[in-house]
Amino acid sequence: MSDSALSASAAAGQGAVGRVSTAVLASSFRDALTGPKHVGSPEVVWTDGGSQIVLHVGKLQVRTVDSTVVVAVDTESEEFGVAPLMTRFVFGAERGPASLVAATDARALGHPQVAARWGELFRDVVWAAFARLVEVVGDGRTPVAIRVGSDQLEIAFEKPVSVVSLATTHLQDRVARGLRPALRERPHT
What we know:
The chain contains four helices and nine strands; from the N terminus they run H-E-H-E-E-E-E-E-E-H-E-E-H. The chain has helices spanning 3-12, 22-34, 112-138, 163-176, and strands spanning 16-21, 44-48, 51-65, 68-77, 81-91, 102-104, 109-110, 142-148, 152-158. Helix 2 (22-34) crosses helix 3.
C-alpha cells in the first residue's frame, strides 16, 4: 500500500498511522524471548522437559523483505553447537484487511533438529510479541492495514466501532431506503 493509500485508509476511519522500525521490533522480540526476569540480557536459557537451549537474543535480527518479516536468532546447545533459528511472517495484500493476515511456515527455519524442537515456541513467542506491540502502538484503536516497508512496518489504525452502533446504523439505513426484512415462512406443523 502506498504511503498516501495507507494514510487515506487511516483518515477514512479517523485513525492514524503508527510506524514501527525493525529496531523496535527486534527489541520487543528480545524482551519477549527473555521474559520479564531477564529483560536486557544478551542470552537466555530455555528449558523444557529436560532439554535446554541458549538463545543469543543479543544477536537477534529482524529483516523486512517485500511483505515478509524475518526474525532470526542464534541458538546454542551441547548437541548441535551454535545453530540458527528463524521464523518468517508473510503478510497479505497491501490494501485493506487482508494485510492484517500473516502466513508462516509449518516449521521454523534453521537447523532442522533445533527448529523441530524449539521452532514452534520461538514462532509463537515472536508472534505474541508482535500482536502485543500492535496493540500498544494502536493505543485502543483498531488496526485496519499493515504495510511492510524496507526497514519498518506501517500500521493504519481507526477508532473502534461498537457492534451495536454498527447494527443500529445498518437497520436505520435499511428503513430510510424503504427496505424491510424478508418474511420468513413459518414451518408447517
